[in-house]
Amino acid sequence: MVDVVIAHPSLNRGGGAERVCLSFIEVLINAGYRVKLVTLDKTDWKMLEGRFGEVSRPNEETYFMSAISNLGMSSQAAITASFFPLTLLLLRHKRKSLLINTYGDLVDCIADLAYVNAIPIRLSYKVSFTFPQPSWQVFTRIYNGAPFWRFAYKSLLVANSKFIQEVLLKKLRRNSIVVHPPVDVNIFMKNSHYRKKHEDLIVAVARLRLGKRLDIIPKVASLVKDAKFILLTIADKASKTAMRRITALIKHFRVNDRVKLMVNQSFEDYLNVLSSASLYFHTQPSEAFGISVVEAMASGCVPIVPCCG
After folding, report:
1. pTM for the whole thing?
2. Which of 10, 80, 125, 297 is the most buried (most CB within 10 A)?
3. Burial (CB count <10 Å: 0-12, 13-18, 19+), residue 168
């Protein structure tokens, strides 16, 4: 019998939310708890180890399909928005263990504890500058009216930053405690001691999605002619639109020689690029926390970030 069940849509996205989920697993196992991980698709542990280095695996795993990362962005969003709430409902109905939701979007119901690591989808049309498209605003309004928000049970909320804590309080009237995402700054600081800094190198880190606003970098590069840019990105099939846009803009602004796109790089390459750069350029507005910002600062980079978030 397990002590704790951790639910997350998919670890194969390999972003900041997934690193938080892995940290929950590590901390709880080290504390002596038996942990079960429940995801929508099968976790690719080799990929995660290549991207993040050594990771802790749960005592048990349950998943419902082989993969969702090979689907387009709309399909991924639809599956996550529909099947993940149902998964949590099923777990709550059958559960005999503590239920933790590290996806964090379902903040009003179902799990015992929800770690909120981003602006909830149902609030993004009110708060976020990341999704200006009318279609997304329509979707979030429909999502906000979904029946699973009407459960009387309320999760204990943990916010990843003061910014998210204030959003939850102002928009949902929900109190929360702040626990920042864990960042192993020592490995980045240590690596930076052995790498030569390049004063003209600017680095950006993000998943390849339109909302991350990496598409502004080619234009910035056209204005800052003495600088070189490296974009460290995570990509899957849902990244095709963002990839086409960025590559087209790189060509349009004629900065092919100064803007390099690295996709699904290894953890070693990630460390080395951050340690070699002098500036870190964070392009996403309304950022909830920004693990990569902390990692870049630990690597000796000066951060350039939006004023919102």
Report:
1. 0.81
2. 10
3. buried
